[in-house]
Amino acid sequence: MAAAAWVIPNLAKLNFENATNLLAASSANWRLALVTSSWTPNNATDELWAVASGNEIANGNGYTTGGATPASTTLSQAGGVVTFTMGNASWTASGAGIPVWRRAVLYYLGTLNGKLNPILGHFLGDSTPADVPVTTAGNTLTVQANASGILTIT
User: Fold this and answer.
1) Model pLDDT, residue 25
2) Which residues sit opposite 30 in a β-bridge?
């Protein structure tokens, strides 16, 4: 199954453009969390993790509430082009396995520009769209980000 493209909500774009504190943002504070199909994003108004967090998959069986910290995050600028990239995020399933999920949400854990836990973007785990099935115990669920970046501003 192929994941869908990242979606950057309108207010996230505005926050990114106005992000005077983004360059100082700690790489350790970015989180990738998994949510169920119960969350239908409103890309015109969704701005904070709080709008999606009530639909996060259950803690346990290899998944930790709040999501995983990507292996790395980088904000770079070259020739007037700003690019945000991230390394992989992964979970190792145990017990009953990592539950069914629909979307992954990337957000900043903390406050940036006066916003608590702002969302950077989200994507469908299966572009059909369909739920991503249970990841059975002993298997690793890895979200591999595109090496070209998640967000590019020219």
Assistant:
1) 73
2) 108
